[in-house]
Write a structure and sequence with these properties.
Layout: E1 3-9, E2 15-21, H1 25-34, E3 38-44, H2 63-78, H3 83-93, H4 97-111, H5 116-122, H6 129-141, H7 144-201, H8 207-221, H9 223-241, H10 244-254, H11 260-281, H12 286-296, H13 300-314, H14 320-325, H15 331-343, H16 346-412
Antiparallel strand pairs: 1-2, 1-3
Helix pairs in contact: 2-3, 2-7, 3-4, 4-5, 5-6, 6-7, 7-8, 7-11, 7-16, 8-16, 11-12, 11-16, 12-13, 15-16
Length: about 425
């Protein structure tokens, strides 16, 4: 965030000058007014010094830092420590430059009389709307320490779900890179050398060898065109996916892909049930909880269903009905939601469904590598077999010709 210099007057009319970090000039005015100062002048600094190099932060705030912050602040608040004192302690021990700046600003805002949720909302660089709304609910109900602990668990679970699919894809992606690397190396090195050797003997090469030589020549002579086409496709895909229609189409295709689609669907279901249960259990209205949950889902197919359900609930309808009509939410989800609505324990039921889908995701990601590995090995085998046939078939033909020549010479002699 930018730095500002300000000039103001206190209650005694004495001039006060200083520097402050804030989102914009208006935020500076609000902070100073909260401190009882009359603002005279605010000016943004446009300087850059050596000290500011240490404040540069690349990659944002790590999830681990957020979890530690939530847990430690919950412990201090639960032990009866004032919130401002807890924020001061956290400010002193946080090492991430960006996070430290945000906590410093939040502490100043809380000291000025604003709530923790409102202070974080003014510093929206770290926590999303879901986190801020949960903190607000915790402050309203007097259970801030409990909410902070739940938030820490939620952040950890969210990170684990993301990490599981990345971990499951790591080995197959390594195999894919090896396959591509071997193919490129053979096309650029082995095939040209083989073509030169066979060219010295003359004669017609087998069809598979001619195809392979033609592919190698194209790679060598038009590599720049291949790079341009690949970059064009990548940029075009990125632009297309950034459009609402493109993202929706991509999400619809993803859920239909074998293996991958199943895992993505279960991850969305686990996040939906876990987060909605957490929001409802924290005291948020079902309308607001559905809105926040829908915004947190990454797949548009699942997101649209929840927004439709929200509209139906606003009209006085049941949450279970629109979920049951969807092709993307299994019957078990709508049935359990119906049970939760009937018993008045929807948050508890959703927590149980979330645990079920968490275990399903764990099992699916563990099996993913073992399912994809044979597929990539078969692809590698086909590629190697194609190149081997192209290389060795002319050798067999050449050995047959040489054998005939030897037999003919022996016959003459």
């Amino acid at each position: 965030m930018p730095n500002f210099t300000y000039s103001a007057r206190n209650n005694q009319g004495k001039e006060v000058k200083g520097k402050i970090e804030a989102r914009d000039g208006q935020a500076v005015v609000e902070i100073l007014q909260d401190k009882g100062l009359v603002v005279v002048n605010v000016k943004e600094q446009a300087t850059f010094d050596i000290e500011s190099l240490g404040q540069i932060n690349i990659g944002g705030v790590p999830m681990k830092d957020k979890v530690v912050f939530m847990r430690q602040l919950a412990t201090m608040v639960g032990a009866g420590l004032p919130l401002t004192r807890g924020l001061q302690v956290m400010e002193q021990q946080i090492s991430n430059p960006m996070f430290k700046r945000v906590i410093t600003q939040v502490k100043s805002s809380v000291e000025a009389g604003k709530s923790l949720a409102e202070s974080f909302r003014n510093s929206d660089e770290v926590f999303d709307d879901i986190t801020i709304n949960l903190i607000e609910a915790g402050e309203s109900s007097g259970n801030l320490d409990d909410i902070l602990n739940k938030l820490a668990v939620e952040l950890e679970e969210s990170k684990k779900l993301q990490g599981k699919i990345k971990g499951a894809l790591t080995y197959p992606l390594i195999l894919l890179v090896i396959i591509v690397g071997v193919m490129v190396l053979m096309m650029l090195v082995l095939v040209p050398a083989m073509s030169d050797i066979y060219g010295e003997f003359g004669g017609e090469l087998p069809t598979i060898t001619r195809v392979m030589v033609a592919m190698s020549d194209f790679f060598i002579n038009y590599w720049w065109a291949i790079v341009i086409v690949l970059l064009g496709l990548l940029i075009g895909y990125k632009v297309w996916v950034d459009t609402p229609k493109g993202k929706r189409t991509k999400d619809k295709i993803i859920v239909k892909i074998p293996i991958m689609g199943t895992i993505v669907s279960k991850m969305q279901l686990a996040q939906f049930t876990r987060l909605l249960g957490l929001l409802l259990g924290s005291g948020l209205s079902i309308i607001r909880a559905l809105e926040l949950t829908a915004m947190s889902l990454s797949n548009d197919m699942f997101k649209e269903v929840i927004f439709q359900a929200k509209e139906e609930v606003e009209r006085g309808g049941s949450l279970a009905l629109p979920i049951a009509r969807s092709d993307y939410y299994p019957l078990i989800v709508s049935s359990m939601i119906a049970v939760g609505e009937e018993t008045g324990e929807l948050d508890t039921v959703l927590a149980k469904v979330s645990q079920y889908y968490k275990e399903e995701v764990d099992q699916a990601t563990e099996n993913m590598s073992s399912l994809l590995e044979p597929v990539f090995l078969v692809i590698m085998g086909i590629a190697v077999a194609f190149i081997a046939l192209g290389v060795y078939t002319p050798m067999f033909q050449l050995s047959e010709v040489m054998g005939m020549v030897v037999d003919f010479v022996n016959l003459i002699v």
